[in-house]
Design brief:
Shape of chain B: elongated
Helix content of chain B: 55-70%
Order of helices and strands of chain B: HHHHHH
Strand content of chain A: 25-35%
Order of helices and strands of chain A: HEEEE
Helix content of chain A: 40-55%
Number of strands of chain B: 0
Largest sheet of chain A: 4 strands, antiparallel
Distance between the termini of chain B: 34 Å
Oligomer: heterodimer
Number of helices of chain B: 6
Radius of gyration of chain B: 28 Å
Number of helices of chain A: 1
Distance between the termini of chain A: 60 Å
Structural class of chain B: mainly alpha
Chain lengths: 85, 169
Amino acid sequence: MNRVTLGLARALVVAALFARPSSAADDEALKKDLTAVIALHGLPCGKVVAVKVLAESDYNASCEDRNRYHVHLNPEGRVLVEQQK
Amino acid sequence: MRLARVSLLLLLPLLVVACARREPATSDSGPANVPTPTGIQQPAATPAAPAPPIPAEPVPPVVKAPAPARPLDLNTLETQLKETKAIGLFTKITLKNQVDDLLGQFRRYYQGKAKLTLKDLRRSYDLLMMKVLTLLQDEDQRLASAIVASREAIWRLLANEKTFATLQV
């Protein structure tokens, strides 16, 4: 019984170790993606440093130069980037 | 491809032997009394002062030149751009939007509805290519090279009204 418990605990620790970097990697990938999107629209940003997920394909991005943008996908399939005050 | 590889394997020993036996290049301005590595004595004008031995010229390593990237057709290019992990999903959609915008400009140009010239379209095309290459070059160099190789071919397709009309865009 102790072995089973120990095995489960180990599995959980391993899962936790792998889960955390994966989430961080996803977060970084999203920041990088939005940084590229904002740059492709020719808007100043530098680098996205924080992202707030509003809905699916709908984000608020904060840039390192303090600009903030609402990045979302409209029903026609266009990515729109709107500067926020 | 296989034939080329076999030929290379067959030729490689010959190349190595040829390099090993290669005589040093003689230049017109070089000294006349440099001994040849084959050991054949040249008639020297002053036998009392033999030239110091010159170390054998190092054989340059056989470096395989990187194969030039093959140009891609539009469908392959589209597929590879969709599949690359170097660009995020939102970036891909944005690029697709911009490609569609550019194709729309070409369409209006050929319909005579646009004030743009072909030179303007070329500038827009180059800018879009630069954006794509900037996004790809660090993480998918193979695709970036293929796009560079395809750049002029794609432009020729777009810049010709007949070929543009045949594109499924």
